[in-house]
Amino acid sequence: MCGIVGIVCATSRIDRHLVERMRDSFSYRGPDDSGLWMSESKTICLGHRRLSIIDTSESGHQPMIDDVSGCVIVFNGEVYNYLEIRACLQDKGHHFTTQTDTEVVLKAYLEYGASCVNHFNGMFAIAIWDPGKGRLFMLRDRLGIKPFYYCLSDDRLLFASEVKAINIALGGKAPVNTGLIDHYMSFGYVPGEDTLQAGIKRLLPGHQAFYWPAKGELQVKKYWDIPLQSGEDEGFEYYLTKGRELLNNAIDLRLRSDVPLGIFLSGGIDSSAVVGLLAQRTTERLKTYSVAYDFGKDFNETPYARLVADKFNTEHHELFVKPEAFRDFIPDYVRLMDEPVTESAAISLYFLSQMTTQDVTVVLSGEGSDEIFGGYDLYRYMMLIEKYRKVVGDRGAKLFAQLANLPGMQNSKLGKYLKMSSLPLHQRYKGISTYDDRIKSALYRKEFKQSVENNAVRQKTDDFLMTLFSGRGDDVLSRMLYFDTKTWLVDDLLIKADRMSMAASLELRVPFLDYRLVEFAANMPSRYKVNQGQGKFLLKKMVEGMLPNEIIYRKKMGFPTPLTLMFQGALREYSSDLLLSSTSKVNDFFERATLENILKEHQSGHADHHRVLWQLLVLEEWLRRHG
Q: pTM of the full predicted structure?
């Protein structure tokens, strides 16, 4: 696990010290080593920070150069099946001088060209300068586990693992994409290719890019996508057996490491399954790590984590985060994330990562299981709405819309679901992390609302979101899972996991996002994912007999953070001072009177506005850095 940066120009000479500053802006991503390579013309420069995982010797130093072709690689992440690829390449006549997966990736590119990615199983962000073709080749893994940002500025292309590095090259002058604040207020993050900083883009998951500096031409291509459901049913026993086989193999591959490993254990089925499967593979005592808040049982999963730790005799460690520590870390959280993301669990994940890295350098987690196996309650609600819509037809849907607009209904939960019931799936489903449009409407200043409606970048993101529903068949659950995998998973959960673990110099691996398991789950009929009100039905059957039923069939908690209580306690004064200050940046977009009312209602206990308050607080901190 590492951090990568680079500048590629047509004719302009690059300042080596600038690239060093970019690279070292995230030194925590690679505390073990750093490197820099510059072309003789000084028009191309690649930088790297290294966290040593595979072949921890000096031979793993990057940028790595192939002496014959002159190709130069910087690589962040892991290709877990590098041993198998290496053997195939040796059969084709390639010789290796290191034991690293980096050299395997470079030789695979030399052998297969851009299609080398079809051989890779892992998490990766890769850049290879190919002097023979006069181009930079860029690549991001299929699910977007590892980040890759880029920016075309004048006659140069900038790229990096984190936005802050690109900002250094731009002199901190990237303007705010104000139109995308509306998407942030809808989702709690900004989905798609564009970021909130104009010109800085994400290379999307499952995409590769080519840049020819001599022509100033950038070409971005999709190389992989989640397959459409085939419509075939192989039978429950087949899926049970195949699912176990794939998950076991995914675990095996992710055990490849030359440094100690641990496991994040929440006590939910996903992380508990990882512990149970790892326990079958080692005689050494596993190390497990849990985090919680001491606010009662609703915010504390440690009893379940202890149950699993005791069953598998792990060396278990617990951490309780205090509200004051949460509050004091918020500015650093926003700085480390680079982008405004309202994932409050990220802060506890940071503290957990800091504790974990004292013992191990690699940790496994259960991230991604809900998005491939259908684990969220919202999926069942949406499927139920779809059934009702089929029964009542268009006339019934119009009736639902009329009822939702009756006095007293507009701000109620019932009114919200009636409005949802009046809309087809592509209009009502906005993903797992969605915010009420009624609050947005009350918050937005008139001028901001008008500017949002006419914003081209916002429209581009709207178009991207619409494409996620087109051509995906009629199966309701499959369409929702696809949408969430392309948005919520990559732009919220995975960015959180990457930033907070890497901030502690810890590599986090996610076996449930092995692309073969993702493809398998996508092809599986939905009734094996959600069955008789049970989400993750197949996974639960896969781990029966290995995990206790009270772990398998307990209610999902999802790393809970007591924000409702904290905005009445430790965050009360902080949020009021931040949001109601005369210099608050959010005043440019939102009505101050509405902000005051939201704070007052929450602090008095008359309403629970913790989600939008957290959203506004993160945005304000971000705007103070970048606005």
A: 0.95
